[in-house]
Amino acid sequence: MFVDSHCHLNFPDLAINIEELLANMRNNEISHALCVSVNLQDFPQVLALAENNSNLFASVGVHPDYENLTEPQATELATLARHPKIVAIGETGLDYFRLKGDLEWQRDRFRQHIRAARLCNKPLIIHTREAAADTLRIMLEEGADRVGGVMHCFTESWEVAQQAMEMNFYISFSGIVTFKKAFDLRETAKKIPIDRMLIETDSPYLAPVPHRGKINQPAFVKHVAEEIAALRGISVDEVGNATTRNFFKLFNIPEAPNILKSARESA
Ligand SMILES: [Zn+2]
Ligand SMILES: [Zn+2]
């Protein structure tokens, strides 16, 4: 059994095929998925997915790549997060790859998200690209360790992973780990303690091998698990069970006994 800890099912490429994607999840033992918010304008659609499907959860937050919008305030985010199907704040963080220039607004927005997470006591989903030092510094300054969370679609060094884990963060691997050129990341995936690891698709982006270049979907998270299992020399079930357990623990979700039980019985 597997969980996709990060996907964007409300994005148009996926939203038009939602029933098919949910069926593909069932057929590939993907028991749950977390639909991650990227802006408040589209948040109602993200929340609706979680409200209408018992095995989908949602987060609330504004992605660092979205410019020129009304900046969300910590209290506003924390209030939106009070819904029982909202299990995290994010995705938030820093992205110095996509955007250049004075990005103080991005750092301020990141701080608001960490404050929101502390206000509502829910974990953070953090996106960081070419900005690891500032990301870790702001996490430390704002006390992100009090709520913990996940470094999603991790592509940074082992040292960055270690520092994040010291602040109670999990490390999530996407389809990038199946790309043979991602040598350092594949080494990191061997070393991360299995009880700190999550898996994700970040769909519709980053389809893993053997679907590279296609539209990604939650069912493909199985390929991420298979690759990590091969790298570590352990069974796919071991990766699936550990990352599923970690998911429920991090996001404080009472386990869904029926789904877990039926998955076990059919195994
Ligand atoms: Zn991201
Ligand atoms: Zn994302």
Description:
This protein has 267 residues and is of the alpha/beta class. The chain has a single domain, classed as Metal-dependent hydrolases (TIM Barrel, Alpha-Beta Barrel), CATH 3.20.20.140. It has 11 helices and 8 strands. It has helices at residues 12-15, 18-27, 43-52, 74-80, 104-120, 132-141, 158-166, 183-191, 221-232, 236-250, 257-266; strands spanning 2-7, 30-35, 56-60, 86-95, 124-129, 149-151, 169-173, 197-199. It has an 8-stranded parallel β-sheet with strand order 1-2-3-4-5-6-7-8. α5 crosses α6 (132-141) and α9 packs across α10. The relative contact order is 0.15. The model has no long low-confidence stretch (mean pLDDT 95). One zinc ion (ZN) is lined by residues 6, 8, 36, 91, 202.
Fraction in helix: 40-55%
Tally of individual domains = 1
Task: Spell out the CATH superfamily.
Answer: Metal-dependent hydrolases
Q: Identify every distinct bound molecule in the structure, by name, code or SMILES.
A: zinc ion
Structural class: alpha/beta
Distance between the termini: 9 Å
Identify the overall geometry.
Answer: globular
Element pattern in H and E: EHHEHEHEHEHEHEHEHHH
What is the CATH third-level topology name?
TIM Barrel
Going by CATH, the architecture would be Alpha-Beta Barrel
Poorly predicted sequence stretches spanning 5 or more consecutive residues: none
Largest sheet: 8 strands, parallel
Count all strands and give the number: 8
Q: Total helix count?
A: 11
Q: Please state how the strands of the largest beta sheet are arranged side by side.
A: 1-2-3-4-5-6-7-8
Strand content range = 15-25%
Question: For this structure, what is the CATH class?
Answer: Alpha Beta
